[in-house]
Fold these 3 entries.
Entry 1:
Amino acid sequence: MANKVAIEAQIQDALSNTTGVSTWAKLESYLITESDSILENVYSDIITETHLVNSITTPNSNFEYSVTIRKVGGFVHIHGTFEKVYVGSLTPHIVFAFNDTDFYGSGGGTAFAVGSVLGVGMSNQNMEAAGALNGEFFGFSVIYNTTD
């Protein structure tokens, strides 16, 4: 996914006289159907990641997780579940890390379990859940701003 500056540069390049688009069909492709088009950046696909099957996240063996991720412009929405499977104390409590810089950012949300509520959030590339106890299973939602 591109950020605002990259999209602006792509449009300016496509419309320039020296390397510009020669037909309306090429312009339409450039703005709508290419994998990094404006349309794809605004209406991106939902990505499903788990601690077992992942492409944009790197799991932490101390947690199991299942999440859906959607990036819309400069915002990322993450919804899902996680469970702390490590016996002992952890610092920090990193559930997973993004390995794709398009998803780096910061922001917070809330995780809920039976009898427990804790804060969760993004810190650069890390999804953190401070205070999770061994064996606790949480449902959570986080919406945050990306860094680029």
Entry 2:
Amino acid sequence: MTSKSIDAVEMTDAERVEVKSGYFATLELSNSMWRMSQRRLARERTEQLEREQREWQQKQAEAAANAQKYAVEPEPTQAAEAVTEPVAKAQTEPAMRLILEVEVTVEQRNNLIAYLKANNIHGVLKRS
């Protein structure tokens, strides 16, 4: 009778096997059904979180692509002035210590490091 009750409930084949094995091990149908429903809820929540994470990663990739797409390269003469002017100021102005925490891609990190080196800005890079 109980096996027929389990078969009558709407669930996947894997869940049905799980409930039957739990029932036959404990002979408590309600506990077996409750455990199966809790695992189902946990599985659905995990799937939802994974979907949200994929969407977030896709948005981050799109934002990075858009930022790169719309980035304006300075003209060569402006670039030369931009590099020499901060270096000259850095030598005459007192040094300051700045702590920045940013979220970047590997490519953005490499571009940031190249910019800092080009402007004679030195320090320590720490990952969090």
Entry 3:
Amino acid sequence: MKKSFILFLTVLVFTLPVVALEWGGSIQNNSKVNSSDLKNFALDQGDAVSLWINKPLSADNSWNVSADVVYKFDYVLDNVAKPTTKSVYNIIDSDFLKLSGKIKMQSAVPVLTLGRFFVSDFTSTIFAQTCDGFSLSYATLKNNYNVYIGYTGLLNSLNVTMLGKDGVEFSSNKDFYALSHAYLPIMVNYENLSFLRNQTLGLQALAVLDAESSNYSRYYGTLSLRGPLFQSLYMSLSTTVGSENFKNIMNYSKLSFDYMNLGVLAVNAGVEYASGNNKFLKPFRTVTKHTAYNSAFYPELTGVITPSAKIMLTFSKFYAEAGGKYVLGFPESKIINEGFEVDGALIANVFSDLQLGVDIKYYYDMLNKGAANNATATLNLIFVF
């Protein structure tokens, strides 16, 4: 199936001489060190090379075929000074391989996308990843409609992390390409763009059906509301009710406020809640791995309440941000102080085709009096051509 689809797109790309072929690529270096005591440091060195093409299939660019190929190399040391274990990973993948276009009609313009591309639910938390499938969108002046049906069994599990039962990651010790666990994500979206004058009301149903013998399916329904409150101040609110095999109920809710001023200053503040064993609710489970905070331990987003704030500045060729997150554990009936995380980042567009970024994070473990502290520093360099 996969080979047939790739062959189909290849034939389209190179046999329809309508408009010139567009292409480009990037080279990326990602060097990350982390430490729990600021004495012993672990290293994660990643490098990636990608190439992409885009082939318009019509003179007005309403239909096109696009694809990319990515090679990633990852080298991991548990201790830079005195390494005891090291791991080397080689990954070959494609993040997008798709045919997309607009279907011209009198009243509206439906958009069809077929192939491999990035898909996200309303929250960008439950299911947000590359996936194979098709999407059909239909927009009017006041309403948006979208249907998506996908299949994860052809994805590279070395490059996409999904969670199974009890939050266990699907993993593989293979090199280059390892087929992922097979799920059938089915998503239906509706948005009313003029609800309460200038607010957007969203309704979403998401079913992630297990296509293998483990029989672990998940179902989610999301209600969202977003839009401006005053000039430069925006609100986003969503709540999701989910279930595992229709045997329990879980919840994920998020409220955030964004202030933006002339494209220079932006401030974000909000709070997230992911249910634990809270009365009739059970631990919340995502499909795509999503963490409660960003330390090297990457705890699962479940049984927590996390208030957060961030300030962002854009000036000339630079972008800077600083923020923090407070982690309140809520595994059962009692709320506990787990810890807090502070982070800062600076990105510089050195040239039009060269970007340099530095990111520093520090998590303080209040629950265990510093036993699980973690500091992480990342240097990222991207060259595009």
